[in-house]
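Q: Predict the assembly, please.
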Amino acid sequence: MKNSEDIQMKFYESGDEAAKLLPISFEDWEKRAKQILGAGPFDYVSGAAGAGDTLRANLKAFQKYQIRPRICREVSKRDITVTLFGKKIPVPFFLAPIGINSVLHPEAELAPAKAAAKLGVPYILSNVSTKSMEEVAEAMGDALRWFQLYPPKDRELTNSFLKRAENAGYSAIVVTNDSTLLGWREKDLQNAYMPFLSGEGMGNYFSDPVFLSKLEEPPEKNVKAASKKALEEGNNTSFTWKELEYICNQTSLPVLLKGVTHPDDALLASAHGVDGIIVSNNGGRQLDGAVATLDVLPSICQVIENKIPVLLDSGIRRGADIIKAMALGASAVLIGRPYAYALAVAGEIGVKEVLENFMAETGLQLAISGRSTFKEVDHLLVTEEFR
Ligand SMILES: Cc1cc2nc3c(=O)[nH]c(=O)nc-3n(C[C@H](O)[C@H](O)[C@H](O)COP(=O)(O)O)c2cc1C
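A: Predicted assembly structure:
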């Protein structure tokens, strides 16, 4: 892995050229993506549920905390690795599951998967990917990957997805349970944008023998009906703790629950057998007016007492955000929209660039705050005193 200063120096030494190449800030990636994408796909990524209050709250929560650095410390050797489920991971961040990447780039999920694999960044493949989990696995070789599941209503289909993920080398299952119904997304409604209906994002369903066996007509004959059937499977509004327990018992892989924002749910999840929790509100795309994830992280970590890992997403834009989340108890974080925009702008190269910049900035932030590993990062590194 390149060190932070080498990556930083690459920009200074490239002189004016750098300005013409890829963006650096989140805001510039977003701007470039807006220039490239049509309103449908751009709004699908940037938009949120309702008024967008939760999307903004997520970002604002990071501003409430400030980093309180210590100086004159030995930070010449930095280590930004973290260990999860007994595995050492080179960076404290994952690529969040983001569905339907084919609307952002022709290579779809293969582009972020390859970029992640090249850098050793773990990738969480969305259940609603356009490429199948086997195609993505092939593109990633032995690199670390998890599979995200929208738990289907049908247990036979659930079992099939779990088995396929195990066979294709995914090493954990992320069950997302904040999206059993699609949030009220004003921009998508205005744009009449629902790419699922034409078969985008259906890679895992349309390659599944159990799913195909339940269709009256194959997707080649009636793509809309097949896609609607897949969406109905995902609208699993009867999914409760019992169903979660079923999934935990059904797979040998660690299971993480994504979408937790209440400490009582964190405790219930743990009691029903999950191996990890992801504090997430889907980037504000599901429940408008919901609490920001960083605000609820400390109370969740407090009840979990380090028994299982607690990850966080929704609002991670820069290295400082990662440091703050880790200081407040996260074991690692997930990066969402930043890589979606980079994918739209420059495919695999774009995602690789964003990830390298996250690595560099996180290492620098750690060192400049007076820490050389995440083991030294705790709540003492941040304060709310001066807001
Ligand atoms: C365009 C888009 C598609 C997403 N698709 C999924 C998905 O298929 N499964 C899932 O669990 N979360 C999905 N998410 C949520 C992300 O995994 C993550 O929680 C969110 O992006 C974090 O918020 P942030 O991007 O504002 O940091 C999606 C998010 C976006 C922006």
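Residues 6 and 13 are 10 Å apart (CA to CA). The chain has one domain: 4-188+239-377.
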